[in-house]
From TrEMBL:
SMART domains: AAA (SM00382). This is ABC transporter ATP-binding protein. The keyword Cytoplasm does not apply. It comes from the Bacteria. Residues 7-244 form the ABC transporter domain.
Amino acid sequence: MNKKIKLSVENVSKTFRIRGGANGEDGILPVLRHVNFDVYEGEIVSLIGESGCGKTTLLRIVQGLVRHDAGNIRVDGQPVSRPGRDRGFVFQQASLLPWRSARANVEFGLELQGVRAADRHRRAEELLKLVGLGHAGAQFPHELSGGMQQRIGLARALAIDPAIMLMDEPFSALDAQTREVLQEELLRIQREVGKTTLFVTHDLDEAIYLSNRVVVLAAKPGRVKRIIEIPFERPRPPLTELRGDPRFQQIRAEMWELIRNSAPLAAAA
Ligand SMILES: Nc1ncnc2c1ncn2[C@@H]1O[C@H](COP(=O)(O)OP(=O)(O)OP(=O)(O)O)[C@@H](O)[C@H]1O
C-alpha cells in the first residue's frame, strides 16, 4: 500500500535571538537543527523530548505562526508560511470564547468561512455528537468541566475539516482520569474521522498509546534522535491493559533512554 504524505518537515532549522545573555549581550539560541520527518495520511505522530527541546516551536512553525530559518514545511505538498485552514489546532487550554455557547464556539471557524447558518448548525451538531457532547451545545464555557472544554476545542478544530490536526499537550492540564478518558476518546474519534495528527506531549505512555509513530527529539538544539514505530494494532485496548504488554515496557524504556542520554551538541557543531 502506498502511503500518502500529508505533512513533510524537511531539514527545518530555527534560532531565536535572545536579549541580554550572561554577559549582557544579545545572543543566538539554536532551537531546531535539520529536523526531518513525514506524517502519512491518517497517522497520529507524536513529538517527544525533554523540556525546551523545541516541540512547541516546531508545532508553531507547522502552524505558520513562527517562521523557520531554513528548510521546508509542506502540507499536501504545498509549502506552509502562514496559518491556514488546512491546519486545525488544539492546545493545552481550550481558550473558548466565554460569551459564546459550546455550539457557537464550534461554529466559529465556519462563520469566518462564510458558511450558511443552517449548514453551520448541522455541522456543529454532528461534531458535538462526535465528541460526546450532543447534549451540551447550549451550555457556556464556564459551565463546562476542563475535559468538556477540551472536547469542544477539538470539535471546533475539526469543524473546518483541516488536512491535519496539530495538538500541543491538549490533555496535560486535566486530572489523570479525565486524561485517560480523553485519550481513548481521541482514538475513537480518530477511527471515525481518520484525521492526520501531529501531537506534542511530555508523557511517554500517552505518546505510545496514541501514536502510529513517535519522533524522539534530542535537545540543544532540537533534532531527531529516533523515529519509533508503535506496533500495536487499532483499535487499541485501554492504556491500563496495554501497559501490561512487554512490548509497551520495552518501547517506553527505549524512549526514556534516548531522552536521558541526548547530550547537547557542542556549541560550534
Ligand atoms: N519567542 C521566543 N524567543 C526566544 N526564545 C524562545 C522563544 N520561544 C521559545 N524559545 C526558546 O526555545 C526553546 C524551545 O522552546 P519550546 O517551547 O519550543 O520547547 P518545548 O520542547 O516545547 O518545551 P516544553 O516541553 O517545556 O513545553 C526554549 O529554550 C525556549 O526558551
